[in-house]
Amino acid sequence: TTFKTPIGKDPVMVDLTGMGKGIDWVNGESLRRYWPSFVSNEDGCQLTPCDYRGPYDNKKCVTGCQKPIQKEYHIPRSFLKTDRNTLVLFEEFGGNPSNIKFKTIATAAVCATVNEGNTLEVTCDGRPISGIKFASFGDPQGICGNFSKGSCEGANNAQEILTK
């Protein structure tokens, strides 16, 4: 099929929901193997909200059970032409290509403060948080996107703790 390049500079995704398993190309560039028909296991799945705080455990907060492991795939903008693009699929299992959608994903930064003894919850609408650039157990100075440690700082490394 052919498609127009999405407007803007945000990352481009192709949603292959409804497809089985195969390989895809955009404008002759191989993107990857895809397999959205492979669904996650039900073992240990939690349908209720859970608490991520505390030590890491790979069985903690298991969600998305019986849903595709991955259905959206990144297309590098450098692979796209300014007007018309060609998507080629080699599908191994079958599927319904009329369900394929192209979209952009807006990336954002979040700045927040919370006083000692309170809880701050940060989410990305079900997507993983890609990184924490600054964190402080103290009195940080500056503005969003340009914080620095203040005159009073806790002994523990806040950024390392929050990243874990």
Give an overview in words.
The protein has one helix spanning 158-163, and strands spanning 2-4, 12-15, 22-26, 29-34, 72-75, 84-91, 101-104, 141-143, 146-148. The chain is mainly β. The strands form 3 sheets. A 4-stranded antiparallel beta sheet has the order 1-6-3-4, with no helix packed on it. A 3-stranded antiparallel beta sheet has the order 5-2-7, with no helix packed on it. It has a two-stranded antiparallel ribbon with strand order 8-9. A hairpin with a 2-residue loop joins strand 3 and strand 4 (29-34). The longest helix has 6 residues, at 158-163.
Shape: flat
Structural class: mainly beta
Query: What percentage of amino acids are in beta strands?
Result: 15-25%
Secondary-structure element series: EEEEEEEEEH
Would you report the number of β strands? 9
Pick out the low-confidence regions.
none
Radius of gyration: 21 Å
The overall average pLDDT, rounded, is 81
Q: What gap, in angstroms, lies between the N and C termini?
A: 42 Å
Q: Helical residue percent?
A: under 10%
> If helices are DSSP runs of H or I spanning 4 or more residues, what is the number of helices?
1
| Physical arrangement of strands within the biggest beta sheet | 1-6-3-4
Give the biggest sheet: 4 strands, antiparallel
